Amino acid sequence: MTAHTLPVATDAAARIADLERRVARQEALLQREDDFHRLLEQVVLHDGALEDLCTTLAEFFGRACVVTSTDGRVLARATATEGDTLCGECFDATGRLLVESEPTGAREFGDERDHRAFVPIVAGGSELGFLGAFTKGTAFSDTDLHLLSRAATVAALAVTKEQAVSAVESRYRAEFLRDALTGRGGVDVVDHAVALGWDIDRPLVVVVAETDEDDQRTERSPHEVRALQERFARAWGWAVRAKDSTIPVAGFSQEVVALVPVTAGMDTDEVLRVVGALVGVVRGEGGGGRRTFATGVSRIVTSPDQLSRAYAEALKAVSIGRQMQGPSALAHFDRLGIHRLLALIPESEDLRRFVHESLGELATHDTPENDDLRRTLAVLLDTNINVAETSRRLFFHYNTLRYRISKLERMLGPITTDPELQLTVAVALRIHEMRGLWAEPR
Questions:
Q1: 333, 303, 301, 345: which is closest to 208 by C-alpha?
Q2: Integer Cα distance of 309 and 298 in angstroms
Q3: pLDDT digit string (tens) for 146-177?
Q4: Within-domain flag for 311
Q5: C-alpha span between 380 and 387 (Å, rounded)
């Protein structure tokens, strides 16, 4: 009797112990979830800011937390340990989350790297961004992922509120900036800017950025176009504020304008480096589903009454720069050269005929050979018919270049000896580059 009873009693005790462990584990999970909800309540009751949410989640999960826009721009972040940094492998060099390669859900690693989890932030059926949390040593459980999704609801409230407030402020700021750029800012324009937290009483350049996609000729709905333009303006706002919160920046219906401070006396290359750094941050290395955009830069202005002239220069630079360089152009007004004059000429049959008659088949046949010949012709003209220098720039053997020059002269005439022909061909080639006038005139 005793021999049969002992195993049964032992088995029952084991099942009871296992049940007690499960109950204790479930109780711990419920307590953890209850603690988490109380923390979220405190965040909501204390204004519900994204920074507060990130700080709370970083401490709760023991490592870090981040909130980003839909294209990966970081809106808020926090770490549990002061001075700590987030893992670099899921962010690019500009600090943008690589949303195109970082999946939602939990990710586990067997080494000492951070475990992380991302969930979407959604409100009203629209995706507003992503909420991510990081831990070290302990992977995220299904319960943790559920808690993070609950936190995303609080993040959605914060993002929605910030966007609503920002929309009102942005409209007011945009109206003031437009008035300042068109000369209607009034005599107290500097003081008004200061009241908005902006500084325009210093050397600066006007920067205009336009998306390469033509929103006037698109199959997108007006709502989608407006949302994309607002996101584009926010990206510039984030990039500018990270550099200097006193830089004026606003989104208009077709472009984003920023008044970027520079040092008086800067040359064009230095100005382009300053603006180019901002452009790189906004692009975020081109990821996250961003639309490409072109950027135009004005000459330096030293007083607010020069803003209207600079704005016109930046608008011209972005328009002509795109024609000269294609999508994603970055152009300075002083680098437009003769293109400034050519842009004033409306496209017509006369213009098309001029290009066709000056370039012959180089203008009417788009082939790899003609591409090479146009490139050779452009460098030859740029070097003032210096054959040795042209050969060096194009990495051609001297005899190869001589053969190409002979072919060009059979097609165009004595371009190496006739200065007037050189000017005509050079202008026609510039127009061809800008307008892409392939078709033969009627």
A1: 333
A2: 9
A3: 899 999 999 999 888 887 877 777 788 889 99
A4: yes
A5: 7
Compute the C-alpha angle 226/298/272, nearest 5°.
95
290/203 same-domain check: yes
Q: What distance, in Å, lies between the first and last C-alpha atoms of the chain? A: 113
121-to-38, 132, 269, 278, 305 alpha-carbon distances in Å:
20, 10, 41, 27, 44
Amino acid code (one letter) for 175: E
- Do 130 and 256 belong together in one domain? no
Instruction: State how far the Cα of 69 lies from the Cα of 430, in Å rounded to an integer.
Output: 41
286 and 238 housed in the same domain: yes
Residues 148 and 69 occupy one common structural domain:
yes
- Placement of tokens 């930046």 in the chain: 314
The single-letter DSSP state of residue 134 is: E
Task: Say which residue the tokens 């324009």 belong to.
Answer: 189
Report the distance separating Cα 68 and Cα 73, nearest Å.
5
Give me the CATH number covering residue 426. 1.10.10.2840
64 bridge partner residues: 79, 134
Domain count, the chain: 3
430 Cβ partners below 8 Å, 6+ apart?
338, 339, 342
Of 207, 233, 229, 232, give the one whose Cα is nearest residue 218.
229
Give 172-227 pLDDT, tens digit per residue.
888 999 999 988 877 789 999 999 899 999 999 999 999 988 777 777 888 888 88
Note down the domain range covering 415: 345-435
Question: Considering the domain boundaries, does residue 174 fall inside one?
Answer: no
